Model the fold of this input.
Amino acid sequence: MMAQLTPVTTTRLGEHLPLLDLLPDANPLSWVRRGEGLVGWGIHATTTVRGKNRFRDARDWWHQELEKLSITDSVHGTSTGPILFTSFSFSENEDSVLVIPEVIVGMQGGKSWITWIGENAPPLLLEQAPTLEDLSYTWGDGTLPPYKWEEQVEKAIELIRTEKVEKVVLARDINAVTNRPIDVRPILRNLAKEYPSTWSFAIAGLVGATPELLLRLNHGMVTSRVLAGTISRTGDDEKDLALSASLARSSKDLEEHHFAVKSVADSLAHFCSSTNVPDAPYVLHLANLMHLATDVTGAISESRAHVDTFAILEKLHPSAAVCGTPTDVAAGIIADLEGMSRGRYAGPVGWIDARGDGELGIALRCGQVSGETIRLFAGCGIVAGSIPERELNESQVKFSAMKSALQNG
Done:
């Protein structure tokens, strides 16, 4: 006797609602940029995967869950129907989290829709999340104190000078304890307001706003935005314009960026009949930082028409932007020098639909919330021309996005 399938319904919404204001306090899920994207809540199914086959294991689990569903989709677009929210670990030896929400609300290109799993459509209510104004924080060092992290950066530079490796990305963490459990919803809203050009994400307590799109797969077209090379903004438009020009000419930053772009382009070439890699990066301006950026695009080969997001992720991650070059050597150095668990920081985060299309960024500018504690992460690309003190200052600036989002009401 066949098991009864669970109904899934997708239908248009007659109004455009503020996505982040729909999220309830339990298990909020988000992938939102400039007011568009996806939010979800409620858990229909969830699991964790780990190990060298975690992307394939994630695909297998997702397909098994899809076989249990009876899908009715009157909208018929990428990201409609049931959605898998994913937050993969940086290392294969740690847990990646997969969540299929009970309710998903999406908005894209002027269209908005709702998907729910089960018999009855849920009510859509604008939620009043608590503010952060009455939170107090006790901050402390993470795995390494700042001076020790600078020493590890110097060790990485020495390895680069001896030609053991070309680039290594070293991350650090800091921790805070608060006076009550932390609600991720006001953090998401603050990040979306302050950094509208980034993707505001939340899944299983990992919350942040990433400027780096690792992978977008849409009807056979693939895009990856590479960021590497960073400089702080001053808030003075004239000075920032000059800093932007200096970043675009910086041999140290251009070298770091070249390694990251080549890593992504080589990975995508494995699947694509053609790729487009611009000759030079542009400067991406955020509220607190400027980055060298390159958008790499490609068309999936007809002979690889079966390729889905999982397959490309397996080839793309980890890129030189979050690991280094060569990848295997850099990963070993990271394990030796960082001395910490990255968890899901610097891993792929986003969503995948029933067709295998999806949109995932790299989990940067983020923190892991657990009850009354939050752990923030920041990483810096180390190359031959790096200076430890400047790398430490860069990491402090990268922490500032989340620190600011935690303080605002």
In short: The radius of gyration is 21 Å.
